[in-house]
Design the sequence.
């Protein structure tokens, strides 16, 4: 069975993340970032072929998403919990969204446990991500310019600034 079938057939939770979740989406200009969690079937957990995530993009890998494009990442429950327990800022937001695209009873149980993922390590991860965004913003960390239109208009990539402010807040 392929990763797509496993992930989509066993979803327990999915929500809209990214700029929409952060309140920074611009109507008609942003793509749609979704993240979710699925439960791997026993044969994948106990067998030789695991399925810890599935990624779907309307655009090919390496091609920038455009307005309306879907970028979907689904994590196995085991991988999601491992990342959330380490305080990964990108995944942990899934547990604090106001609405969800998919919610099952197992997904509701996971959301009910969200306080278990708050830790000092999570705070350190948020701070590390904030500092990395600041370094990119100030040109102190090598990065590929993904948004040259922002740099041309404002002199810097405003998305790095937005992420730094969001993480600090």
Sequence:
């Amino acid at each position: 069975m392929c990763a797509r079938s496993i992930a989509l057939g066993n979803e327990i939770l999915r929500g809209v993340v990214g700029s929409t979740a952060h309140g920074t989406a611009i109507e008609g200009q942003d793509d749609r970032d979704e993240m979710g969690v699925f439960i791997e079937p026993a044969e994948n957990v106990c067998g030789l072929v695991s399925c810890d995530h599935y990624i779907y993009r309307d655009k090919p890998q390496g091609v920038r998403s455009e307005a309306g494009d879907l970028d979907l990442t689904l994590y196995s429950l085991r991988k999601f919990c491992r990342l959330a327990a380490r305080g990964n800022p990108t995944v942990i937001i899934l547990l604090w969204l106001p609405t969800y695209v998919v919610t099952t009873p197992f997904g509701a149980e996971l959301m009910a446990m969200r306080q278990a993922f708050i830790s000092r390590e999570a705070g350190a991860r948020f701070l590390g991500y904030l500092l990395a965004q600041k370094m990119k913003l100030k040109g102190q960390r090598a990065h590929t310019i993904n948004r040259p239109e922002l740099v041309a208009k404002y002199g810097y990539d405003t998305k790095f600034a937005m992420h730094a402010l969001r993480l600090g807040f």
